[in-house]
């Protein structure tokens, strides 16, 4: 477990960063921490999310923010932009509310890479992170500025398994 106020970026293509984040979430929950998890670009929750939410009721909240189907990065649908913006707003609210020990934004940099979110808004979120809370971001490498703004970066080569 990392100290409060710590931020990390699990970076890479494919499912490995998200799976590593979920393993981290399970460890945090097992240690008695309260976790708020936002999954970007998801039309629904996965079975593992639902099982964890049931097992750790009251200590875990999971939100799927998106819809099923591809996103055109050349011309993002306003509906997809709205889902991503709402997901980031939920993460921001969780950071400021103070009810959570860890906030996890799975796929947030994928949303940036697809043109659904502005990188500056994600960087602002890092600046707003309270010293009492951990923040975990996942997705593809999009910016060295983002990597330089977190306490830890863990890279997952394409095809990596956790």
Explain how this protein is built.
By secondary structure, this protein is an alpha/beta fold. It has a single domain, classed as P-loop containing nucleotide triphosphate hydrolases (Rossmann fold, 3-Layer(aba) Sandwich). It is built from six helices and six strands, in the order E-H-E-H-E-H-E-H-H-E-H-E. It has a six-stranded parallel sheet with strand order 3-2-4-5-1-6, sandwiched between helices. Strand 2, helix 2 and strand 3 form a beta-alpha-beta unit. Helix 3 runs parallel beside helix 5. The model has no long low-confidence stretch (mean pLDDT 91).
Question: How are the SSEs placed, and which strands pair?
Answer:
Elements: E1 7-12, H1 16-30, E2 35-40, H2 47-55, E3 60-65, H3 78-97, E4 102-106, H4 108-113, H5 119-128, E5 134-139, H6 144-149, E6 152-156
Helix pairs in contact: 3-5
């Amino acid at each position: 477990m990392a100290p409060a106020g710590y931020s990390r970026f699990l970076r890479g293509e494919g499912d490995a960063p998200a799976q590593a984040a979920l393993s981290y979430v399970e460890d945090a929950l097992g240690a008695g921490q309260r976790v708020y998890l936002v999954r970007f670009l998801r039309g629904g929750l996965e079975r593992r999310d639902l099982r964890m939410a049931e097992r750790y009721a009251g200590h875990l909240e999971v939100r799927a923010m998106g819809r099923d189907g591809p996103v055109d990065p050349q011309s993002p649908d306003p509906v997809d932009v709205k889902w991503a913006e709402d997901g980031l707003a939920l993460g921001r609210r969780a950071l400021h509310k103070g009810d959570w020990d860890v906030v996890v934004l799975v796929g947030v940099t994928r949303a940036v890479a697809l043109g659904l979110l502005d990188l500056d808004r994600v960087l602002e979120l890092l600046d707003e992170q309270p010293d009492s809370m951990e923040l975990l971001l996942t997705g593809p490498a999009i910016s060295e500025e983002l990597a330089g703004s977190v306490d830890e970066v863990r890279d997952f080569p394409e095809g990596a398994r956790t």
